[in-house]
Amino acid sequence: MTDRTDHPDIRTLGELRAARVAHRTLREEIRENLLRTLAEGGDPWPGLHGLGRTVLPQLERALLAGHDVVLLGERGQGKTRLLRTLAGLLDEWSPAIEGSELNEHPLEPLTEASRRRILLEGDELPVVWRHRSERYVEKLATPDTSVADLIGDVDPMRVAEGRRLGDPETIHYGLVPRSHRGIVAINELPDLAERIQVAMLNVMEERDIQIRGYVLRLPLDVLVVATANPEDYTNRGRIITPLKDRFGAEIRTHYPLELEDEIAVIRQEAELIAEVPDTILETLARFTRLLRESSAVDQRSGVSARFAIAGAETVAAAALRRATIRGETEAVARMVDMETATDVLAGKIEFESGEEGRERAILDHLLRRATAETVRGRFRGIDLGPVVEAFDGRTTVSTGDDVSAQDFLAGLPELAAPDDLSAPDDGDDRAGTTYDEIAARLGATTPGQRASAIELALEGLYLAQKISKDADEGGTVYG
After folding, report:
1. Residue 172: strand pairing partners
2. 10 Å Cβ neighbour count for 24?
3. What is the residue range of 75's domain?
4. Could you say which of 252, 278, 313 is where a domain stops?
5. Cα separation, 185 vs 200, whole angstroms
6. pTM for the full model?
């Protein structure tokens, strides 16, 4: 939507007719563009993960049928992002009558004023071109939204100029009429007061508008799409039954079903200011999914994808802070940074009423489970026995928010050679040891990446009760 090519060099109605530019309704335009994209094997929904087998086919069928659509789903399921991709199904450029308040097509005027202009100016009627991004309008529904905002109202200044009160030219049009030949997206539809929802009925079915007793037969060509949280029907508000009936399609969204899709969403949406290894993102994704399954969490509110996204950004920030303080040339996130993320993310989760006082314990428990699952998946087949043997009861390894990667690596105990675990230390650089297997398995090459990989392995050994761990405000000690 941001990449714009030059619009057609057509400036008048006469040139438009000479170029044989056909007029299509909005639904025909969306239908034909969607079918062409599908026939060419393209992706009409870029940036959406985990919905390809469920939500997107339903949405495609609704658009092909020409239906208005409401998306139902918990917070953070990508509903708004999905609606915004609809603009990509519009023609890149579309002609409109210059100066038209309702962006009317030159070949299909809507108001009496535009029809008079065509009679008077004929083929010299000026034409402008609108980019598809201008034909998508988004409105966040709030309780203070008025009929004037959405539909319109009488403009007292125009009446004061001497026009009759019933003159259509005295009307100041609202958001929906001004979106003629475009898409109107209403977020959190149940938050609209019921009397405002009533005002939408004629727009969506009869395609006319009523303003202060005046009925204007304007055959508006708009596609209305909306989002709602299912719980809003009984909590903050509800979608009135007649309006629900006006929507041709009601589609339920969901969180990503596959772990890979969850990770892809985090990687795509998070603005990371430091390197965050895939293992950290995987742990965050597993952590989020465990929260969605936990009986201690209020699942009616959901656990948004923003939880994991904010976690990844916080972990990256912790890594950058450490690198700056310790003078490191690279900033790489490690498992120790996950604890800082948990501290700031707790407020994004709504727990069941009986869990007061146990919130942090629940988060810590589920984070440990997520970490253990990541370790099992990543290090399967690697013998970590030599690492356990190196902790002989006196040896410890320290890490923490302010421990650099170099210091952490320098503090690791020497491992016996793999062919003879009892062999004495020969002073080499530990090439070929279990540490190298751990790093190689995760593709870690730099000191920061190696420290992150090995720290994950140590945390896994602790969770498997192979080594001990002592953590306080001063740092973490494995032993």
Report:
1. 153
2. 18
3. 13-252
4. 252
5. 13
6. 0.85
